Amino acid sequence: MKIFCILLSILVCPECFGGARHFTFLYEAPTSAPGSCEVENYATLQWADEKSGQFRHELEIGVTNRLQLGIYVANWEYADHAARYENASLEAIYNLSNPVIDPVGISIYQEYAIGRRNFEWESKLIAQKNFGPLIVAYNLTLEADWSGQDLTERDGELQQALGASYELSPRLSVGLEMLHEFVFPDWRSSRVEKNFFVGPNISYRHRSWFATLTTLRELTSNGHDYQVRLIFGLEL
Amino acid sequence: MKHFILPMTLLLSACAGSRFAPPPAANTAGLSPATAQQLNRGRQLFASRCLECHTLPDVHKYSCEHWPHLVSWMAPRANLKAEERDAIIAYLQAASR
Prior knowledge:
The structure holds two protein chains of two kinds.
Chain A: H1 2-12, E1 37-47, E2 51-62, E3 67-79, E4 82-95, E5 105-115, E6 118-131, E7 134-147, E8 153-167, E9 172-185, E10 193-206, E11 209-218, E12 226-235
Antiparallel strand pairs in A: 1-2, 1-12, 2-3, 3-4, 4-5, 5-6, 6-7, 7-8, 8-9, 9-10, 10-11, 11-12
Chain B: H1 2-19, H2 25-28, H3 33-48, H4 66-74, H5 82-95
């Protein structure tokens, strides 16, 4: 009952804000204020051999000064003129140090995703330093997923991302994001696929909402694949 | 390249520490322990809670008279309790002197 009351008070809090995002492919070290609650919707469109779109809908809750929880109610994909539900997931971010007053702001991130024939596990180290209006962030991510009838198909991915964002005004930021992926099909290093993306981002926030957009271009394939991600956040 | 990176890192680190959330130590001389504690807490809150919506301004950007109004205006969005808001105001007023 006590836990229910705490959760209810968090959910009905009318004036709190979880925090605006300056990047879409990177996470930032600061966590949401305790008691804050926010909905974040992700849309990622990819232009590779085929066009596809991935969508996520997250409820983000600040639990303590250092802990933040995220519930991804639905992760789904649109491809070949059909929508397909993939999984739901739970993430936790714990902040260890501050990006302004400590030498480096550090947070650790853990996410578990469970679908009908799919299980994913993702760990992340988030580092950030603020130089006044300039934010520099780095993420190191290790991801593993199991899928198929008996979860016998498995893949791994090591990813590093670097981004910089400059706040032109309290409402507007612009920056750059870089993404370096190492995909290990069946966890075999001999079959590793390396992808490198780079592109600009822009973030706008006003009152109870924000929108951040990043366009990335792949520099490692002959086809020069593109992906665009939009995050739209709204306080509850 | 090495000769460029080191001075730039030191310069940026110095800028980050000195203007955007400087320690209140220099301003706490002569204050009671409770006040010094409040100033340190105000600094921690300023560097974490205000950062959720925007990067931190130079503490000297606004005067002692302006900070209470600005912080009170933004406090509901940052979900600050009254004592947290007061600690941030006390810190900013001390640091901006």
